[in-house]
Amino acid sequence: MQTRVSDVFSSNNLFSIPNYQRDYAWGKQNVDDLWEDLEEAKAVSEDKNNSNEMGHFLGTIVLAKRDDGVYDIIDGQQRATTIYLLRYALNALKNNPQRNINIFLDDDDKPRLQVTKQNSDFFAKLLKQTDNKKIDDSLEKEAITSGQKKLYEVFKEIWARIGNFTHEEASSYLSVLDNMVLMRLEEKNAGRAIRMFQTVNDRGVPLSLLDKLKALLILYSNKFCNEELDDKINDIFGEIFKISMQIKDHKAASSLADAQFVSEVENRIFRYHLFSNNQFEFPRYRDGADELYKNLKNELKKMDKSSIKDWIDFYIDDFLKFFKSFYEILELSLKNPNMFKLLFILRINPYFYAPLVRLKMNNLLDDECLELFGVAEIIFYNFGSTLDATAYHLQDSVDSKENFKNKIIKGAKSVDMEYHLNQIERYNFDWKKCFHYLFLTYREKNISIDNLIKLLDKKTYTMQIEHIISQNTEKTLDYKKYGFTDLEEFETYKDSFGNLIPLEGPINAAVQDKSLAYKQDEYKKSAIFYNQCFANSPEFLNFSKAKIIEENRKFKEWAKDYFSIFLPKE
Questions:
Q1: CA 486, 489, 495: angle at the middle one, nearest 5?
Q2: Is 136 exposed, middle or buried (0-12, 13-18, 19+ CB in 10 A)?
Q3: What pLDDT, on a 0 to 100 scale, did the predictor assign at position 76?
C-alpha cells in the first residue's frame, strides 16, 4: 500500500536492519537521485495550479514485523537509511528540533532505525555530528567497513546540500519529504517477506544473483520444509555477504582472475562452488553464473521433494565454508611465501580456484600442494598449451594429496615435458609471470613473506624483467666485449634465463641500456636479495657470455629436478 514517509517512520515504530542483510552501499549518485526527487516534489507542492494531492513516489520498502513489535527491513534498507539520515539532519536544522525528536529516537535515546551491529556506533556518531551542526572530518578516519565509508560519504553529501539552510528552509524541505510516498509491503513472516523481496529492487542497487539465490532457497524452505530453514538461510547469507565485502577489500583481490573479478566476487565464487560440490553434473564448464543459476533452479524443480531439506541444509553450510576458505586463502597469501607467489606473481588461472579452495576446506593445502599448483600453471598454460578442461577437472581429486598430485601428473601427459625442459632456459623474456615465479623459486628459496610484500606496488606485483647485458648492445655493437663472436650469437643468448633478473620498475627505467658499471649501484637498491648479492659480487663487472651459459646450465638442471615427477620414469 502507498504510505506517506511520515506515516511509515512515525514516532510509534521501531525499525531494524537484520544482520544478515548486505552492508550499506549507497553513494553520492544515489543521494543525487533522491535529492532530484525531493526538489521535483517541492516544486510540485509550491505550484498553485497543480491540484494533484498524491505525494511523489520514492520506491518500495518490504517489512516483516517481529514478535517484539520491531519491523525488520527486508528490502529497502538503503533507501530507508538514507531517508532517516536526511530527515534527521533537516529536523536538526529546524528552530526547535527537540519538539520532534521522539520521531527519531526512542525512550532510551537510541535511533528508531537500528542499523546493523557493525555500523551502529558509527551511525550514532554521524547523528551526533548532525546534532552539533558541525562536520568533523576525523570521523572519516574512523570508517573501517565498506558500509561505514558509504554512510560517511552519503552523510557528507547530505550536509553539503542542507548545511547552510535556514530554519524555514529546513522545515519546508522536511515537510515535503514527509509527504512523499513509499510503497509499503508488509509480511508477518520474514521468509515470505524475503520471497516478496525477490521481485523488488532498491534504486541504484540491483538485485544480485545471491539475493535471488537466497530468495529461491527461502521459497523452497517455505514450500517443502515448513519454514524450518528460513533463519539458517538468512544467517548464513548474512555471513556470506560480509565475507564477500572482505574479499573485495582484500589486498590480494586485485591480483585475482581479471579486472572484473572484484566487481563480480559473489557471482564468481558462486560459480566455482557450484561446479565443485559434485551434487549436480554441469558439463559446460565455461557457463557463466547466470546460466548456472538457471540450471540450479531446473535441478531443484526435478529433485525429490523429500530430500529438499537435507540438500538445502548441506548446500548452504558448504557454500559458507567455501566463502570462508576462499577468504582464508587470501589471508594466507600475506603469510605464506608459496601462496603469495601463486596469487600475486603467478596469478594462477581461475580454473584452479575451486580445487585450491576444496583442498583448504579438506585441510590438505600445504606447501607441497601450493608448489603443485605452481608447476601445473606453468605446464598447463606456459608450455605451449591451454589446458582449461584439465585444470577444471582437478577439483574432482581433492579428497587426498596423492590423488590430487596424480591428477596433475596425468594431465601433464599431453605435454612434451622433455622437449620443454630442454628448452627451458631459452627465450625467458617472453615468459613474464612464469619467469618471475621460477626465478624467485630457484634463486630465493628461503625468501620471507615480509620481503615478498616489499615487491608490491601498493597491492600489485609490478616487477619488470631486466636484461643484465643490455638489449642496446645489438645497436652499439659492444657484444664482442662480452664474449660474443657476432650479433647472431648475442641474439641467441640475449633473452635466456642467465641474462635476466626481475627488477623494480623505477630501477629498471633508470638502468635501461646502461653499462654494467652504471647498473651495479642501482641493482643494490633492489628489494630482491639475490640482486643485491649479484651486484656486490667481485665478478659483476666481468659478467659475460660464459657466465650466461653457466647460469643457463644450472637453471636447466634445477628445472629438470623441479619438474621431475612429470618426466617419464627410466
A1: 130
A2: exposed
A3: 86
With pLDDT > 70 as the criterion, what percentage of the chain qualifies?
A: 94
144: amino acid identity, one letter: I
Residues ≥6 apart with Cβ < 8 Å to 22: 77, 241
CA distance 321 to 329: 12
Phi, psi of 466 (to 5 degrees): -105, 135
- DSSP assigned state of 259: T
Cβ atoms within 10 Å of 15's Cβ, excluding its own: 22
Between the CA atoms of 123, 125, 129 and 131, what dihedral angle is there, to the nearest 10 degrees?
80
R_g of the chain, CA atoms, integer Å: 31
- At 204, the pLDDT band (50, 70, 90 cuts) reads very low
SS3 label, residue 281: coil
pLDDT of residue 486 exceeding 70, the answer is yes
What pLDDT is recorded for position 201?
Answer: 46
The tens digit of pLDDT for each residue in 14-45 reads: 999 887 777 888 999 999 989 988 988 888 77
Backbone angles phi, psi at 87, to 5 degrees: -65, -40
Could you tell me if 446 and 478 are in contact, meaning their C-beta atoms sit under 8 angstroms apart? no
Per-chain mean pLDDT for the chain? 88
Grouping H, G, I as helix, E, B as strand and the rest as coil, residue 73 is strand
Those residues with Cβ within 8 angstroms of residue 531's Cβ, 6 or more apart along the chain or in another chain: 501, 502, 503, 523, 524
Mention every residue, 6+ apart, whose C-beta is less than 8 A from residue 485. none
Asked if 154 and 27 count as a contact pair (C-beta separation under 8 A), the reply is yes
List, as one string, the DSSP characters of 7-66: HHT-TT--EE--TTSPPP---HHHHHHHHHHHHHHHHHHH-TT----PPPEEEEEEEEE-
Dig out the grid coordinates for 345 from the structure.
Answer: 606473481
Q: Do the strands 15-16 and 57-65 form a parallel or antiparallel pair, or are they unpaired? A: unpaired
Look up residue 196 and give its three cell numbers. 516478496
Backbone dihedral angles phi then psi of residue 248, each to the nearest 5 degrees: -60, -35
What b-and-e string marks burial along 443-482, b requiring 16 or more CB atoms within 10 Å of the CB? Answer: bbeebebeebbebbeeeebebbbbbbbbeebeeeeebeeb
Residue 58's φ and ψ, nearest 5 degrees, are -105, -20
d(CA 285, CA 251): 28
Classify 3 as helix, strand or coil.
strand
Cell of 545: 657470455
Q: At 446, is the secondary structure helix, strand, or coil?
A: coil
Q: Maximum Cα–Cα distance for the chain, whole Å?
A: 96
Q: Classify residue 269 as exposed, middle or buried by CB count within 10 Å of its CB (0-12, 13-18, 19+).
A: buried
- pLDDT score for 55: 56
Question: How many Cβ atoms are within 10 Å of 558's Cβ, its own excluded?
Answer: 15
Q: Which residues contact 554 (CB under 8 A, 6 or more apart)?
A: none
pTM above 0.85, yes or no: no
